[in-house]
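Summary for the steering committee. One of the milestones for this cycle was to obtain a three-dimensional model of the protein with S-adenosylmethionine bound, which we needed before selecting residues for the alanine scan. The sequence and ligand used are listed below.
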Amino acid sequence: MSGKNIHSEPFDNGTITKLEIFEDYAQAWIPTFVMQPRFGEIHIFDFFSGPGYDSNNIPGSPIRILNKINEQLGNILQSKTKIVLHLNEFEPNLKAQKKFELLKKNCEEFILLNPKFKYFLTVNYYNENAEDLFFKLLPTIQEFPSLVYLDQNGVKFISQEYVDELEKLNTTDFIYFVSSSFFKRYGKTEEFKKALEIEIEELESEEYRNMHRLVFNKINSRLPENSELKLFPFSIKKNANIYGIIFGAKNYAAVDKFLKIAWKRNNLNGEADFDIDEDKTKIQLDMFEGKKMTKIEKFKNDLESKLLENTSVTNKQVLMYTYANGHIPQHAVDLLKQMKKEGKLDYEGKSPFLNYENVFRKYNIVNYKIIK
Ligand SMILES: C[S@@+](CC[C@H](N)C(=O)[O-])C[C@H]1O[C@@H](n2cnc3c(N)ncnc32)[C@H](O)[C@@H]1O
């Protein structure tokens, strides 16, 4: 066996999309904590690390995380934040754990090339079944600000027992990978039913492109009624299959970061690496059916109706509505400015001050007056 890797094939485009979203989120998440020395120690968990590279030496999740840590070196050294990286790789039913050996070798090589890592980075390697390791590491996940990646093959980790534990955590952001369209084929099997119970009729009536949304909605509906956990989906098409990411966090800073990453990847829907609602065709006027609204147009339309039901609304209320609907603040800002121009709404100054920074960090709460 030569080379860095034994992933038998190169990563496909869908996998690259997933890995880029993982690393974009690490890039946004790490500075949140290293810019504030009070956190002291942060933990990143990659429960399904793989060997580190694909067959073309394209980095996988653990090397991408290390790269993102490397990019923040200056800030990390300055704030003296400790980073603990937990990397796990396990091939069930195999005696020789070659991927795990490669994972260790590849990460150790990377770390040797970056000698400053020794001042702040600890890497814990595990060669264990993630199903058990998850529960073993839960106390650590609970104790520190944590970022958890669950890049599974399949669907097992969306089962209630794992989501329940993640739901209880307050300073943890997590990203799942789920083979959602497999439910269409295997939804009746015990393994899939154990992960998530979806009625056969629902599976059969739902359009294929919406399979990840269906899985996502089921998981969301299983959360306790007053849960503060906020979940968001991102569908990924790989050949004939629909996979997807599920992002979860309790705080709005995390939500803001994830939604910005998602909308930057796809400014049509912020929710898929393809045109999931055929918005491109909706942009063109439909002569027979009338114009259909795109996702952004529908959001603005609904928000305008909501605003017009009131006499006064705060920027915080609008921002929370915007996040809850999976949109970025800019979409609401565009509408507010337009409504002001049309004399339907008023606020002082030029800007509606509608962003995370103003509302949640500076507590700059602004009232919008609805003009009747
Ligand atoms: C989708 S791949 C993850 C790829 C990886 N994140 C990367 O970027 O290359 C899933 C990985 O989990 C490993 N795996 C499968 N079952 C596992 C289990 N029960 N516990 C831990 N790892 C497992 C597989 O060997 C495989 O390398």
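Key point for the committee: The first strand starts at residue 41 and ends at 46.
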